[in-house]
């Protein structure tokens, strides 16, 4: 066999694909069908009006079939800058915005400008597995920041982790996988820590459109010098159901985006044109529709919270955006419990072992004790059924 990059070989397989293999080729009875709670992505198509706007662009805009600007369509960058400035009460200029082929690419591009092999990045637990995978395959070390039962990262504990190798701290809020929303004062404290130590703060707000609170979740963009430290990531996939069209964004200094441009041009040349056209149309026309989507997700969140109150031994550690993160009561690690849920309850979830280090790797046991439940594609009745099936498992 030809050589394989050892960093790539040491990177764990994509967790969602691994979970799908658990159910591949299996039949589930119609009276108890599989409930798939493994992936945090909408499966419904975008609103018809949005789809028609994209279809019209395919037919009437010849430029939609060509390479576009590496950093994205100017109109979309301008719209993002204007809406972010208004929402966060700060100033974001179009030159501080780049469009990417999804938010995962936004993270990879930002990280490529920050860290080289041998450097390190702080990831709070539980972490988003694709972030860890990119660091691993890039030869960048992960400095794991443990969290308690509230799953909130502590800037004081983070400060103790920083070394001369540390290049950035990454926050995902609302958190994937836990659904926890980080308080504004916590996010601000991390900005001040990163600034004082001369490293970057990456804030991934992929699920910002489904916050439980109204208004801006932090005041970082109100800081006139925000771009000396902050790198902000966003995704259109969840807001407008554009997962397959791959549209994300980075907000950072113009100087950093000049470096990002090198990465994007090399990897994808430009973000997909039709997806960007759809994202722009959505931003300009779907505010009321998106508010309804948020209300529905919050209703599902409330249904999960109510359902877990009748599950003895289970503890809901986090619940928000698309996610619930629960401590299970079984005397077995979470990967074993997740497979039991498939076999006996016909529920597909992801184990905490996919979101943090095992005890054998220096972990504190959180990974083995927890499960992620992604409820974006189960309504309130479906979530009640989930809780009924879990209750039937016993202990």
| Percent helix | 40-55%
> How do the SSEs run, as a string of H and E?
HHEHHEHEHEHEHEEHEHHHEEHEEHEH
**Total domains, how many?**
2
Compute the CA-based radius of gyration.
Answer: 21 Å
**Mean pLDDT over all positions:** 94
**Ranges with pLDDT <50 over ≥5 residues?**
none
Q: What is the overall number of helices?
A: 15
CATH class of the largest domain: Alpha Beta
Largest sheet: 7 strands, mixed
CATH superfamily descriptor of the largest domain:
Type I PLP-dependent aspartate aminotransferase-like (Major domain)
Backbone shape:
globular
CATH topology of the largest domain: Aspartate Aminotransferase, domain 2
How far the N terminus sits from the C terminus, by CA atoms, comes to 46 Å
Strand line-up in the sheet with most strands: 2-8-7-6-5-3-4
- The proportion of residues in beta strands is 5-15%
Tell me the number of strands: 13
What structural class do you assign from the helix and strand content?
alpha/beta
Q: Judging by the overall fold, what is the CATH architecture of the largest domain?
A: 3-Layer(aba) Sandwich
Outline the structure in words:
The chain has 395 residues and is α/β, with parallel strands linked by helices. It has 2 domains: 6-45 and 291-393, Alpha-Beta Complex (Aspartate Aminotransferase, domain 1), CATH 3.90.1150; 48-287, Aspartate Aminotransferase, domain 2 (3-Layer(aba) Sandwich). Helices cover 42% and strands 15% of the residues. It contains 15 helices and 13 strands. It has helices spanning 6-10, 15-23, 48-60, 74-88, 103-114, 129-137, 155-161, 184-197, 237-240, 254-267, 273-285, 287-308, 334-345, 366-369, 380-393; strands at residues 35-36, 97-100, 120-124, 141-145, 166-172, 200-204, 230-235, 248-251, 315-320, 323-327, 347-348, 350-351, 370-374. A 7-stranded mixed β-sheet has the order 2-8-7-6-5-3-4, with helices on both faces. Strands 9-10-13-12 form a 4-stranded antiparallel β-sheet. Strands 1-11 form a two-stranded parallel ribbon. A hairpin with a 2-residue loop joins strand 9 (315-320) and strand 10 (323-327). The protein starts with 5 loop residues before the first helix and ends with a helix. The mean pLDDT is 94.
